[in-house]
Amino acid sequence: MRISTQMIFEQNVRGITQSQQKWLNYGEQLSTGKRVNRPSDDPVAASQAIVVSQAQAQNSQYATARIFATQKASLEESVLSQVTSSIQTAQEKIVYASNGTLSDDDRASLATQLQGVRDQLLNLANSTDGNGRYIFAGYKTDSQPFVDSGTSVNYVGGTEDITQKVDSARTMVIGHTGTEVFDSITSNAEAEPDGSASETNLFTMLDTAIAALNTPQEDLDQTGRDALQAVVDKTSRGLKNSLNNVLKVRSELGTQLNELDNLDSLGDDRSLQQSQQMSNLVDADWNSVISSYVMQQTALQASYKAFSDMQGMSLFQLNS
Predict the structure, then answer these.
(1) CB 143 within 8 A of CB 157
(2) Strand partners, 155
(3) CA geometry: angle 180, 169, 133, nearest 5 deg
(4) How many C-beta atoms surround the C-beta of residue 88 within 10 A?
(5) Is 115 exposed, middle or buried (CB count within 10 Å of its CB: 0-12, 13-18, 19+)?
(6) Separation between Cα atoms, residue 230 and residue 280, nearest integer Å
(7) What's the pTM value of the predicted model, to 2 decimals?
(8) Angle between helices 5-32 and 286-311 (to 10 degrees)
(9) 54-277 maps to which CATH number?
(10) 3-state class of 166 per DSSP?
(11) Which CB contacts under 8 angstroms, 24+ apart, belong to 41-45?
């Protein structure tokens, strides 16, 4: 088989081109720090990197969701802390109101103080976050959840708690409805002595007590006075039940805040593992790449020299 000069020339050019392309690829890895810059560099690693990248994006989304959930739950817990203090203040007033030696003026003064506590609780029940959204309105965050009709306080908010998916297998309540906080009692609540239904509405408890304290007792017989005292006693039991209910909700929030901290730690560990996995798939091995780059550069220079020397060779030069 005869090998033409043209074939030899093309083979040498092809070899130089391939060597130059390898050298340029190593240079690209050095400049980007990536071993895989396009799918063709390593199809298997590139496809696995896509899966890892999607997992990283999902993990980042859950981290953002946990930030929102923590802010939401922390704000509600802060408001409920004030609600707890207000209920305890009301309890103190009710206990004092049970003193049989109080005059009608004293009782009226206590009623005024209870009215202030009641108004404060109503304001807390209609609390908003920094964006003007009502905290205890469920998913109806754009409308005031509690409305004072003058004779009663009615809840007109949403009926479903606000939930947030904070991890792949965890969805938690980050916003309770007003009904759960201000119109509920626990399963182990103190029952009424006569077997009647316990009052659940915090505002109704206070309104009935305020009305009883504002009623003059001087012109009442013992039966009438006992009836008013029974209202005060029922309110005392109701406030105790209501306080326990609020503390239960706060306990749930505290547990969830601790869980969010733990999920954040797990998310950070997961992020670190995913970053390491991604690095193993696509990042360049600096020692290997630098070594290969220098060796390929040397080989390319040798190829250039050999090709240049070959071009100067001919039969006439050999015979001269």
Answers:
(1) yes
(2) 146
(3) 40
(4) 12
(5) middle
(6) 75
(7) 0.79
(8) 160
(9) 1.20.1330.10
(10) strand
(11) 45/281, 45/282
Q: How does pLDDT run along the chain (320 residues), one tens digit per residue?
A: 455 555 555 555 565 565 555 655 656 666 676 767 777 667 888 888 888 889 999 999 999 999 999 999 999 999 999 999 999 999 999 999 988 788 999 999 999 999 999 999 999 999 999 899 999 999 999 999 999 988 899 999 999 999 999 999 999 999 999 999 999 999 999 999 999 999 999 999 999 999 999 999 887 888 888 889 999 999 999 999 999 999 999 999 999 999 999 999 999 999 999 888 887 777 665 566 666 656 666 666 656 555 665 555 554 454 44
Q: What are the beta bridge partners of residue 175?
A: 162
Q: Which two tokens stand for residue 156?
A: 């007109």
Residue type at position 193:
P
Report which of 148, 175, 170 is spatially closest to residue 80, judged by C-alpha positions.
175
**Pairwise CA distance, residues 284 & 27, whole Å:** 11
Tell me which amino acid residue 132 is: G
Residue type (1 letter), 244: N
- Asked if residue 49 lies in contact with residue 278, where contact means CB atoms within 8 angstroms, the answer is yes
Q: Which amino acid type is present at position 173?
A: V
Q: H helices of the chain, where? A: 5-32, 43-97, 104-125, 178-182, 202-213, 222-282, 286-311, 315-319
Write down the residue that tokens 């001269």 correspond to: 320
